[in-house]
Design a protein that fits this description.
Blueprint: H1 2-10, E1 33-37, H2 49-68, E2 72-79, H3 84-93, H4 97-114, E3 121-124, H5 128-143, E4 147-157, E5 162-163, E6 169-172, E7 181-182, E8 199-203, E9 211-220, H6 226-242, H7 247-259, E10 264-265, E11 267-268, E12 285-286, H8 288-291, H9 295-303, H10 308-311
Parallel strand pairs: 1-2, 2-3
Antiparallel strand pairs: 4-5, 4-9, 6-7, 6-8, 9-10, 11-12
Protein name: Methionyl-tRNA synthetase
Family: Belongs to the class-I aminoacyl-tRNA synthetase family.
Organism: Casuarius casuarius (Southern cassowary)
């Protein structure tokens, strides 16, 4: 408090010259370099105050603080645009997925401009950079033997001639008998559902009765990477002791480690998404949980072709 009072008494003339970063903002040797991202807002709705307060506003406040401290700061964000929810919204509004993304990306950008959110760059995930970086990460995993193939039982609509993603199926909840449960979750009892468990399932597109059929998918083979699990545990111990993890985040992460890492499916039978560049899987796209986090990298890459100086630069 005494230091703050003394600084206030000296006035603004005693403050250091404001730092004016170059454009584009890149890490600078000898300065504190800060990269800030907000959670990417999903593109199938109009943002409300809760969305803004929940992630965008807090990151904006921190970005402004960092700039006032004369730290070299880059703040990026953008809309998350792939996945089932976009396809579902497109069907509802009679538009293509790309048209839905273009419509809501513009709405999001306008609202954040109105609130004067201080993004250095606000982008989106439906870009060539997203495809290139996601496919490159995929190819590296494939070359290192971290992927496996497995058969999954899924609902297929013969009328639409397609396997149905979870949100394209409705039926009776196997737990509470609610008649409008989705293929991923029941909105009445809140329980997670595997679509093949639904009673009397229906295709949301044509109202036909889908059948259970086998389909091949690619999985991230996490159990195979025992060395990775050891490195992860070591990193977590260090991060828990030095970082500000919430109790809930610690609990969930510990449960994953305690139960052992499991294979995770990274492909889906959808049309709207980043294409899988592998023979036998070219009619599939990457599952959005695999694809969307890469959006932080690709949005930075759309901002500057020197994006790796931010994302592959632990020394700064």
């Amino acid at each position: 408090i005494a230091a703050a009072a003394a600084a206030w008494a000296r006035g603004t003339a005693a403050l250091p010259e404001p730092w004016q970063p170059q454009k584009p903002v890149l890490p600078v040797e000898g300065r504190r370099n800060v990269l800030i991202t907000s959670a990417l807002p999903y593109v199938n709705n109009v943002p409300h105050l809760g969305n803004i307060i929940g992630c965008v506003l807090s990151a904006d406040t921190f970005a402004r603080y960092c700039r006032l401290r004369n730290w070299n700061t880059l703040y990026v964000c953008g809309t998350d645009e792939y996945g089932t929810a976009t396809e579902t919204k497109a069907v509802e509004e009679g538009l293509t997925p790309q048209e839905i993304c273009d419509k809501y990306n513009a709405i999001h950008a306008d609202i954040y401009r109105w609130f004067d959110i201080s993004f250095d760059y606000f982008g989106r995930t439906t870009t060539p950079h997203q495809t290139m970086i996601a496919q490159d990460i995929f190819q590296r995993l494939l070359a290192r033997g971290f992927l496996l193939q497995d058969t999954v039982e899924q609902l297929r609509c013969e009328g639409c001639q397609r396997f149905l993603a979870d949100r394209f199926v409705e039926g009776i909840c196997p737990f509470c008998r609610y008649e409008e449960a989705r293929g991923d979750q029941c909105d009445k009892c809140g329980k997670l559902i595997n679509a093949v468990e639904l009673k009397r399932p229906q295709c949301k597109l044509c109202r036909g009765v889908p059948l259970v059929r086998p389909t091949q998918h690619l999985f991230l083979d996490l159990p195979k990477a025992s060395a990775l699990e050891e490195r992860l545990e070591s990193w977590l111990e260090q991060s828990w002791s030095t970082g500000d993890w919430t109790a809930n985040a610690r609990y969930i992460t510990r449960s994953w480690i305690r139960d052992g890492l499991k294979p995770r499916c990274i492909t889906r039978d959808l049309k709207w998404g980043t294409p899988v560049p592998l023979d036998g899987f070219r009619d599939k796209v990457f599952y959005v949980w695999f694809d969307a986090p890469i959006g932080y990298l690709s949005i930075t890459a759309n901002y500057t072709d020197q994006w790796e100086r931010w994302w592959k630069n632990p020394q700064q």
